[in-house]
Amino acid sequence: MIEITQNPIDIQYVIKSAESSEAGAVDVFIGTVRSKTGNRKVIRLEYEAYEPMAVLEIKKIIELAEDKWKLEGWAVSHRVGTLNIGDVAVVVAVSTAHRKESFDACQFIIDSLKQTVPIWKKEVFEGGEEWVSAHP
Questions:
Q1: Whether 99 contacts 24, CB under 8 Å
Q2: Euclidean distance between CA atoms 69 and 120, whole angstroms
Q3: Predicted model pTM
Q4: Is 60 exceeded by the pLDDT of residue 8?
Q5: First-residue to last-residue Cα distance in the chain
Q6: Residue 136: pLDDT band by 50, 70, 90 thresholds?
Q7: Tag placement on the chain: N or C end, fewer CB within 10 Å?
Q8: Residues 121-133: pLDDT tens digits?
Q9: What is the mean pLDDT of residues 9-25?
């Protein structure tokens, strides 16, 4: 399941979408909006995406992960629009037979997503705003 949404992410739905009876491990990454970046107070984040390309790029990342690990299930949901402090911005869930593969695959997916998927983030601070590049 790949989802780009303006609505709050249903974390349990993402996890359920990745679960498999063949899996002994489900690893989940939940990215939230933090209140500070460095020493600057964050007011909100604004995400934009080129959705058709974002979905295709996430599919490529999943295919690469499937080449490296035997994924029993997976799901990715990323929110766009205006997000406030504490809101969930992204959820990645991966299920595999064993925990190490699940941890490794989940980290690979979120790291790759931040590097290559056309989803852009603007941080709005007290006194300014800034488009932020990926943080590999």
A1: yes
A2: 28
A3: 0.92
A4: yes
A5: 24
A6: very low
A7: C
A8: 999 998 888 898 6
A9: 96
